[in-house]
Please model this.
Amino acid sequence: MARTPDGPPPPPVVQRLYVRYAKRGRLRFSSHRDFQRAFERALRRAGVPMAYSAGFSPHPRISYANAAPTGTASEAEYVEIGVVAHCDPDRLRAELDAALPPGLDVLEVVDAGEAGRGFLAERLQGSVWRVELPDVEPERAEAAVAAFLGRDEVIVQRLTRTGVRSFDARGAVVRLEVDAPDSPTGTPGVGPDGSPCAILHLVVRHETPAVRPDDVLGALRLVADLAPPVPPSVTRLAQGPLDAARGTVADPMASSRS
Model:
C-alpha cells in the first residue's frame, strides 16, 4: 500500500503573480541555477507567503520560464509564483528587489488574475535580442545577414549534455536586421572607442530545440565567414506573444494589468 504524507494537505494557491526581472552587468554570468537559489532566498527574506506542493518533499510553487543562456544579459526574464495569501504586487516588487543582489533587478510584478487565463510560460512565444558586434563593420554584417536570410535552412551544431546535436538555425528566425550604433562623433557604424561596430536586431521564435543568439552567430559564420574578433555583447530586450507577420513580440503581462 502506498504511503501518504502525515498531516493536513498544504494550503491552496489563492493568488498567482508574474515577476519580470533583469540580469545586468556582471550578474549576466550567473547561471539559471544561481538565480534560482538567489530568488528562493529573496522570497524567504521578504517573508512572501509561498504556496508549497504536497508530498514528502514539498517545494515552493515557482515556475521559471525560458531562462536566458549564461553570459547573456536580459531585460525580460520571467518567473511565476503561487502564494497562500494575497500580496500587493508593487510592495512585493520592492521587497524582492531589495532582497536580491544588484544586477538581478526585479522590474515588475503583476497579479496573474483568474487561473483560467493560463500560465505565463504559454505566452512566451518569441524573443527579441540585441547582439553587439565590436570590430565588425555594419556593411560586412549586412552581407552576412543577407546570405543567411537567403537560405531556407542553415544547420548548426551545439554541444549538449547528451552530445553534439545538429539543428536548423534559420527556421526559427523571424526577423534579423543590422543597425549601426550611435557614435559621439556622429559617424554611423562606429563605436564609442572609434572602432567599427555592428548591432544585430534579432527576433526568434521559441522552438524545441531553442535557437539562441550564439546559434545564429554560428550560422552567419557558416554562410558568410563572419567571425567577430571580439566576443559579442548579447542582451534579451523582450519576450512574449509573437506576431510573426510583423516580426514583433508583445508584453506577456499586459493582459494581467488592471
Q: What stands out?
A: Residues 32-45 form the longest helix (14 residues). The chain has two domains: 15-122, 124-249. The CA atoms of residues 220 and 226 lie 6 Å apart.
